[in-house]
From TrEMBL:
GO molecular function: beta-galactosidase activity
Domain Beta-galactosidase galactose-binding, chain residue ranges per copy: 501-559
Family classification: Belongs to the glycosyl hydrolase 35 family.
Domain Glycoside hydrolase 35 catalytic: 11-326
Name of the protein: Beta-galactosidase
UniProt-listed InterPro entries: B-gal_1-like, BetaGal1-like_ABD1, BetaGal_gal-bd, Galactose-bd-like_sf, GH, Gly_Hdrlase_35_cat, Glyco_hydro_35_CS, Glycoside_Hdrlase_35
Active site: E158, E234
SUPFAM superfamilies: (Trans)glycosidases (SSF51445), Galactose-binding domain-like (SSF49785)
One Pfam family matching this protein: BetaGal_ABD_1
Keyword set includes Kinase: no
KW Cell inner membrane (keyword) present: no
Beta-galactosidase 1-like first all-beta domain span: 371-482
Length: 582
């Protein structure tokens, strides 16, 4: 065979034995202008392959509406890799995990209350088929069997950590084969009995994921697959961060020691991540390992990887290259020219648009007996505003949002009464009395990111059950969906002393374009837009202290920043630095 395949314990490419040295780079976490820079750096490190996930929710944001342009131009990303003589592993949806919103599943699946995810459930599989009918024909010309760089496709992702529905896995396998995906098919799971038993299927290469204990992991894999190459499809060389935690790192010495162990065993390896990038917009995921736990992921996906968030080689990059050079003859390390970093300094916010005064400008009211979830109202990400009236007088009772997803600001007659937060067990409970003339209740709920891993994937957003005052459910709600995809209707005015959620706008001039890092010290929590691009969330609870702003988002001359601040600004300025603050 002249195409990529395996025989016995070795991979072969064009009939020559090959050890796969791969790195994960997610095109959807990097502006397209930097794809080639990151790929060149991967190749200069001594790697011969790249791996990427494919997030379904990015490519089919609304049912039947597909997007493969800009940051979603998967075909161009793979073509670039091929032009650089890199091989490609593609790990397509339906599910990817990746600390990505809903693990890559589209939120509109949850509009169907009866939907079953990641199993042999015909309504779910019908949606998968519709998606594959669009996605896989785009990949077909890029397969190695057709002269392209794609050497392998993954079936699902770490499925043994979730279920054991072999009928479902085989359905996905046949769905790929029937659409002409005639390259290597593989699975990846943790190196544990239950995970391998649940995730492996006949006729598909099994790989394992881990961050340490290589020999033990491969020994376990060989128990189930004795006559095939061994590969770590995810070598966890770093880790991700949740809000309200410390920044996670993986020591370089640990990474190079585990890598050296794998290469001595003649194993193939894929660094997860080689370059992490950024969870732009509202695409960060969250973890929810129990029914009561919820941990949203930060905007940065730096991952303590070989390239940092802005694409610069780290100490880990050079240490890994040195280990690889012991096993592979490498050419001199020729890196692309460094991308300029700019400190644009302080920018003053000059205008403000209070949310409440602008609700009808950027949304349309929806009236319902009870609060509806985002998904039932056709909304994917962002915020949602609910309001109702409680008649009075009434004695003091507890105010309870039943099954809140995820964080709510509660206002009584326009004054902030409290913050209820699913992710913060210490968040205060809320109780109040109602005067004789009643009280207007307004609730602004933020979707902090759908769960991306584990048994609690069905993570509807907004108010998912109801709102009670004491024992009584409240009805007659007016709702505004706030995905914040179009802010053109905002009516800005001069700065005021409003402490309610507001949009703030400022401008600055740029003579030389470069990457920069935005500090919002003195601000509390919200979202930033640069020239209309949703940069992502900030939150003063840390650990992330600055937002990465890629140079291609800027333009020569006048640039605009809009900040949606939830708690009222305490600092009318922001600062652009030339390096990140951690």
């Amino acid at each position: 065979m002249s195409t990529f395949h395996y025989s016995g314990s070795s991979f072969y490419d064009k009939d020559q034995p090959i050890q796969i040295l791969s790195g994960a780079i997610h095109y959807f976490r990097i502006v397209p202008e930097y794809w080639q820079d990151r790929l060149l750096k991967l190749k200069a490190c001594g790697l011969n392959t790249i791996e990427t996930y494919v997030p379904w929710n990015l490519h089919e944001p609304k049912k039947g509406e597909f997007n493969f342009d800009g940051m979603a131009n998967l075909v161009r990303f793979i073509e670039l890799a091929g032009e650089l003589e890199l091989k490609v592993f593609v790990r397509p949806s339906p599910y990817i995990c990746a600390e990505w919103e809903f693990g890559g599943l589209p939120s509109w699946l949850l509009a169907d209350s009866d939907m079953r995810l990641r199993c042999y459930h015909k309504p779910f599989l019908d949606h998968v088929d519709d998606y594959y009918d669009k996605l896989l024909p785009l990949l077909k010309p890029l397969l190695r069997t057709n002269g392209g760089p794609i050497i392998g496709l993954q079936i699902e992702n770490e499925y043994g950590s979730y279920g054991n529905d072999k009928e479902y896995l085989n359905y996905l396998k046949e769905a790929m084969i029937s659409r002409g995906m005639d390259v290597l098919l593989f699975t990846s799971d943790g190196p544990e009995d239950s995970m391998l038993q649940g995730g492996m299927i006949d006729g598909v290469l099994a790989t394992v994921n881990f961050g340490s204990g290589a020999k033990q992991a491969f020994d376990k894999l060989r128990e189930y697959q004795p006559d095939a190459p061994i590969m770590c499809m995810e070598f966890w060389n770093g880790w991700f961060d949740h809000w309200m935690e410390e920044h996670h790192t993986q020591p370089t010495t640990t990474v190079v020691n585990v890598l050296d162990e794998m290469l001595r065993l003649n194993a193939s390896v894929n660094f997860y991540m080689f370059h992490g990038g950024t969870n732009f917009g509202f695409y960060n995921g969250a973890n929810g390992h129990t029914e009561d736990s919820y941990e949203p992921t930060v905007t940065s996906y730096d991952y303590d990887a070989l390239l940092n968030e802005s694409g610069d080689p780290t100490e880990k990059y050079y240490a890994v290259r040195e280990v690889i050079s012991k096993y592979v003859e490498l050419e001199a390390c020729e890196l692309p020219a460094p991308i300029p970093k700019k400190a644009y300094g302080r920018v003053v916010m000059t205008e403000q648009a209070p949310l409440i005064a602008n609700l009808d400008r950027i949304s349309t009211p929806i009236h319902s007996a009870y609060p509806e979830t985002m998904e039932k109202l056709g909304q994917d990400y962002g915020f949602i505003h609910y309001s109702t009236f409680i008649s009075g007088p009434r004695p003091k009772e507890e105010f309870y949002i039943q099954d809140l997803h995820d964080r709510a600001l509660v206002y009584l007659d326009g004054q902030l009464a409290g913050v209820l937060d699913r992710s913060d067990s210490s968040a205060a409970q809320l109780a109040f009395d109602v005067p004789a003339d009643g009280v207007q209740v307004s609730i602004l709920v933020e979707n902090l990111g759908r769960v991306n891993y584990g048994p609690y994937l069905k993570d509807n957003k907004g108010i998912t059950e109801g709102v009670r005052y004491g024992r009584q459910f409240l009805s007659n709600w007016t709702t505004y969906t706030l995905p914040l995809t179009d802010l053109s209707g905002l009516a800005f005015e001069s700065l005021s002393q409003h402490t309610q959620p507001s949009f703030f706008r400022g401008n600055w001039m740029v003579d030389q374009i470069g990457d920069t890092f935005l500090s919002l010290e003195g601000w509390s929590k919200g979202v930033v837009f640069i020239n209309g691009f949703n940069l992502g969330r900030y939150w003063n609870v840390g650990p992330q202290k600055t937002l990465y702003v890629p140079g291609p988002l800027l333009k020569h001359g006048d640039n605009e920043i809009v900040i949606f601040e939830l708690h009222g600004e305490t600092n009318s300025t922001v600062t652009f630095f030339a390096q990140a603050k951690i």
